[in-house]
């Protein structure tokens, strides 16, 4: 990183002021003496402002905004970072300088991170009354409820997969009910991928809920192999109670290869009568 970026990342406003003073002094000397040599140019560019936003130094962001040029700066990156961190005052400050920014991306950034107040402001002041243009969240139920109530929601499938993969059961339940009216949703590829993600990450309660609601999986063996490879013993046990079929030897190989001792012992106890096991 440049000297300026190092200073902005840790909020060293006094140092930044000194650097700007030195730059201005050098520029003025060059003008007065009319020499062709270069003057000092500090690194007011790149990710200097983004780093300040990322580390919560709003005073530095405002100072950069008021006293330095955006010409070589990643201002859009700073704005997106502010949206992701729910920094409404900084978003309000930077938006006028970047009117061409993808406003849907900005709204989705706020929604994904669960910043409802910021999202509401973006909807009111940036989206110009558009509807059904913000993706539902796989992490924040309050955001989802507000989006649906405001007729702004879209793309529930991505949120559903995210919620399953991360084990957010209340959101999985809510999205399951929301998606229930979608034809064949419980057997579509995206729903199957979401189920696979829940198994892979060992979210047993999510797995139970999905099976209870009738989710169907074509590749039952792949699901068990994934759970075995990750060592999710309770998930493997439950899937067997639900008649998920898999090659016992291959399951044992996956568990053994990744050092899942408890799972290896259970598989051996359950299926040692299978001559193909070894």
Automatic annotation (TrEMBL):
InterPro entries: Ankyrin_rpt, Ankyrin_rpt-contain_sf, SecEffector_AnkRepeat
Signal peptide positions on this chain: none
Pfam families found in the cross-reference section: Ank_2 (PF12796)
SMART domains (alphabetical): ANK (SM00248)
Superkingdom of origin: Eukaryota
PANTHER family: ANKYRIN REPEAT-CONTAINING PROTEIN (PTHR46586)
Protein name: Ankyrin repeat protein
């Amino acid at each position: 990183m440049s000297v300026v970026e190092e200073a902005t990342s840790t909020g060293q406003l006094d140092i930044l002021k000194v650097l700007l003073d030195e730059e201005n002094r050098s520029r003025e000397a060059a003008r007065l003496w009319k020499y062709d040599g270069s003057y000092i140019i500090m690194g007011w560019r790149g990710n200097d402002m983004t780093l300040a936003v990322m580390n919560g130094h709003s005073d530095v962001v405002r100072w950069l905004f008021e006293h330095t040029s955006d010409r070589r700066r990643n201002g859009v990156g700073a704005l997106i970072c502010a949206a992701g961190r729910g920094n409404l005052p900084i978003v309000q400050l930077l938006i006028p300088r970047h009117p061409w920014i993808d406003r849907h991306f900005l709204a989705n950034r706020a929604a994904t991170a669960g910043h409802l107040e910021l999202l509401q402001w973006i909807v009111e002041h940036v989206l110009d009354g558009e509807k059904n243009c913000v993706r539902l969240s796989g992490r924040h139920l309050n955001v989802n409820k507000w989006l649906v109530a405001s007729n702004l929601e879209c793309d529930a499938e991505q949120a559903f997969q995210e919620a399953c993969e991360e084990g957010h059961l209340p959101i999985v339940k809510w999205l399951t009910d929301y998606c229930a009216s979608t034809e064949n949703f419980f057997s579509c590829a995206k729903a199957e991928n979401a189920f696979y993600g829940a198994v892979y990450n060992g979210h047993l309660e999510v797995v139970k809920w999905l099976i209870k609601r009738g989710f169907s999986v074509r590749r039952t063996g792949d699901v068990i192999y994934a759970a075995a490879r990750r060592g999710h013993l309770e998930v493997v046990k439950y899937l067997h109670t639900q008649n998920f079929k898999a090659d016992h030897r291959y399951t044992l190989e996956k568990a053994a290869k990744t050092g899942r001792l408890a799972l290896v012992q259970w598989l051996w106890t359950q299926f040692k009568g299978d001559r193909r096991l070894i």
